[in-house]
Amino acid sequence: MSRTMRTAAAVILALIGTVAFAAPPSTCNLEGDYARALCAYQHRNFGEAENGFRALMEQTEQTPETIRATYFLARTLMKTGRFDEASALFVRIYSLDKSFYDTWNCDYLLGECRKALGK
Questions:
Q1: For a designed S-S bond to 30, which of 10, 35, 63, 64 qualifies (C-beta 3.0 to 4.6 A apart)?
Q2: Which domain, by its residues, includes 80?
Q3: How high is the pLDDT of residue 62?
């Protein structure tokens, strides 16, 4: 093996080691229902994430946290192939807070849902 190949192999192994021991997402160290749901989402535990985001979203008082929960519930539904439900949530976000809809790129995500549904 040439010196260049050995160096490249060493770099690749170093990168793999860094990824294997990477710190958990920062939200997993935070308190609260939203942080727990987001941590579950980041760990691809979509059932737990859905339950957490849905509970937050269904609160009667609309807060910045409930709109973010609605957004991440829609993203969770997309990850699990439930594009009709996700589409409805993006439309709901638009009606609740157009600036959030625009800032968080919900139009693109709604388009991706519609594309997945063949619309």
A1: 35
A2: 27-116
A3: 82
